[in-house]
Amino acid sequence: MARRTPLHARPRERSRTTPERGVRGRSRRPGGEGNTRLTSSLGAVLLVLLFLEGLTIVSIGSLLTPHIVIGVLLIPPVLLKIASTSWRMVRYYMGHREYRRKGPPAPLLRILGPVIVVLTVVLLASGVGLVVGAPTSWRPQLFTIHRASFVLWFAAMAIHVLGHLVETARFAPRDFIPYTRRQVNGASSRQWALAAALTLGVIAAFAVLPYAANWRASFFG
To answer: Which of 33, 48, 63, 70 minimizes the number of CB atoms within 10 Å of its CB?
Structure first.
């Protein structure tokens, strides 16, 4: 007659639930990582656009129109990135568990965050003002503000990029790789948000083209 193993001696079945994946076969709610994926994807796209924008500065006289077009194209993705990072900050300071577990950025990056937001808004607003709506008498002042804010913004942004480079490289592709995109819900929504921001940027860039041509003619004669 076979002996029955006592209950206390039987190996316990491993739980199908883990902190990382939840129930096996199901995706986690977006939470902190969903926000990080969106922010990182936006960061990667903005790095490419800012690199192209930087190339136009090398020969601004002949590349003024591309400079203006790319600058306007940047605005919707930049606003979406500001929104995503602000959301993370609010959730962190409200004590949301996932954002608390992820922790805050390094102290220097936390200090630079609001500074970069202000400088970015000033830089883009002064550029748009120069091209679209500023009276001729205001142009020298706006041009000075645009140049000065760019110098300060570039210095702050260089530190920001270096501080987030590893995180961006790690999380930016995750919504675009079949295996990793299934791990966190909302990948399609985040991709649509990114696509919508770029589409709005393209529409705005085309809308500003006539102003760019007129401004170039009046500025360079």
So the answer is: 48
